[in-house]
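Submission sheet (multi-component)
Chains listed below:
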Amino acid sequence: SVTKIRSSFTTIKANIQARDSIRTLSILSHPHSLHKVKVGRCCITRQLFNFYVDKVFKHCKTEDSFVNRKISSIANSFLSVKRKLEQCHEQNKCLCGQESDEKFKQILANYEGLNVTSAAIKSLGELDILLDWIEKS
Amino acid sequence: SGELYCSLPNPRNVHFESINMKNVLHWSAPEGTADGVLYKVKYSVYGVGKWIRKPECKNINRTWCDLSSETSDYEEQYYASVKAFLNGMCSDWVETTRFNPLTDTKIDPPMVNVSSTEKSISIILTAPEKWKRSPEEESVSLVQVYPGLQYNVSILKKKTKKRWWFSISNNTLVVPWLEPGTAYCVSAQIYVTTPLLHSGFSKEHCIATLKDK
Amino acid sequence: GDALLPAPQNISILSTNMKHFLTWSPVIVQGETVRYTVEFQGEYEREYANESWIPICECSLITATMCNVTEDISATVAYNLRVRADVGARRSEWGTLKGFFNRITTSLTPPLMKVIADGYHLLVELEDMGPAFQFCVLYWKKGQESRMQQKVVKQVSSVVHLDTMEAGSDYCVKAQAYVEAINRSSSFSQTQCVRVQGGTSMWL
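Outcome: structure written.
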């Protein structure tokens, strides 16, 4: 699924990132980079997949039918992965800790610091940051 | 900031060209301008609030600027921007799209080292190194940057034109039980599954197995 | 006159080897060209996006009674699909696929395979079934089924090298397709066996 998410995102990356005019803020990489998270990776991944499914995709509708179809593909793939992570969580295999909770709180604060549509488009445009981090492990 | 009146046409096609994470900003001169145009360059780390000028690319007349040093942290993403000047006029700043060194770089083919015995060929592949500031700096192989890096190896028997393919994760391959005194040509390609990247094929390295004693 | 246009019927999905086609029966209107439009809805749209539907522009106002939905059925979740008919200004209700479609139910066929003995070397040529596919190739020396060996082939590039063989023996090979996205495999292909001649005439 991550490979499919990556390929779908690559086709709309330039389009989505061009809609994000705020260069000076980031949801996932500043002030503290997702890449610096070493502990509680599964928990953060699960929280981020929930975050994208619950908060982000629904505010990313565009006037471009092709882009909307790719967003749907990504959103449904996220939902499929989210389900698997929830099973891990229920089997206590995806436990959270203070560092991961702290990190996710900060990501939410970044997100809520912007208006909903800007925050959603920015988050969608940062999917490669999330995927780079996931694929690094 | 004392900027000049900016009615000069903009630089065009401002983009990064990256090979093995040597990240060079390129652009084309503004339309309709002959010689004499000068440029200056700035860059920014995505998510950080300031643009940084590149002194070595101030008032330059070439249409490229090496930003490898400034963009060497591949866990960050970047923007760069160019402004043109001519006869007291200037253009607007023109930005790149967001540049992600990890996914937007191109990878060179691996180096191929081939040796042979009477009936076998041994192949050693070396992935390119990530760009580094100076020869003294510690080398980082792209294998360390892309943990999923693998190699596709093609072996062609010149006499029969038959070609075989191997996919390997480590960088050595020994092909036994070949015909003595016969020429084989080897070529290799790097491919990474996530993110999806692949190099071109190396040029062919031909070698003959030793003759039967 | 302007009787209501009937909705398309017999809507179904043909799904083989991760290629998915929506088909339906034609709506017959004498002397008129009927055109059809297809939309899809993933589980995400149902549960998180107000049950919204997404148009497939390649299947908008088409005359065919089939639509390739492979590109849009791109996650392993339950999808809804629907079709409506248009004739001039007249438009039918939506006809909806009965039940959901999940690509996990796609039918997988064994790969076409050609086994080659080239000197002492055992090789296999596999059908390119698309980016979603990998192959599990099993090979063994005839009579030594218990010492079967396995090779996973992720990238299909013409002739793939399996192993070297002992002179004068028979070797057998069979392969199955595997789709990681749905974690399912096809049945195995027919077993093919080849003989390795002895002597020097058989160098690669």
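Remark: The first strand of chain C starts at residue 12 and ends at 16.
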